[in-house]
Write a structure and sequence with these properties.
The protein is about 30% helix and about 25% strand. By secondary structure, it is of the alpha+beta class. The protein has two domains: about 90 residues, no CATH class; about 40 residues, no CATH class. Strand 1 and strand 2 form a beta hairpin. It is elongated. It starts with a helix and ends in a 10-residue tail after the last helix.
């Protein structure tokens, strides 16, 4: 009897620790895009932009120069031609305004998916979840418009017509 009770208790513990997914349950793909709340109430996304290196022709020193005690060169250095890495774009950080997490509800995400579908960037089913297909579509759309990020920017959301556009009163 105690063995059955211990087994049942162990199964309950395992079930309680197992993450739940499925309809209505938040899975990892449904988590809102990372955003940091600012003092003014807006949210900003922060994305690290990796450095880009390119292999270019160059010379590598193989043997150092031999110098006399007075500093005169006895034998010049020896170089060989080789390809060397060169930084084309240094590592950086991209910061931009993004919808806050409370905005990224299933209805909003479904509207985002429909807007991207209408423009030919999204081809999957409208799910209302921020899944890989949605993030990839956002990245493609924004990349074509000059910003390579999978985080939805407020500017892109305005272009897609899914958030209010601020109007200036004259």
């Amino acid at each position: 009897m105690t063995f059955k009770l211990a087994t049942a208790a162990a199964l309950c513990l395992v079930a309680a620790c197992t993450p739940r997914t499925g309809p209505g349950m938040p899975g990892p793909e449904q988590q809102p895009m990372a955003a940091e709340r600012q003092a003014d109430g807006t949210c900003q996304a922060r994305e690290v932009v990796p450095a880009i290196y390119e292999q270019v022709p160059g010379q590598v020193q193989v043997v150092q120069a031999e110098r006399a005690a007075d500093g005169t060169v006895i034998r010049p250095p020896i170089y060989r031609n080789a390809t060397v890495p060169q930084v084309v774009r240094p590592r950086g950080e991209l910061r931009f305004e993004t919808p806050c997490p409370e905005t990224m509800k299933p209805e909003f995400i479904a509207t985002l998916q429909r807007a991207l579908l209408a423009r030919g960037y999204y081809t999957a089913a409208i799910t209302g979840r921020l899944d890989q297909a949605t993030v990839a579509s956002v990245r493609r759309y924004q990349s074509d418009n000059g910003m390579d990020s999978g985080h939805l920017s407020i500017e892109t959301a305005r272009e897609l017509g899914i958030v209010a556009v601020e109007q200036t009163v004259s």
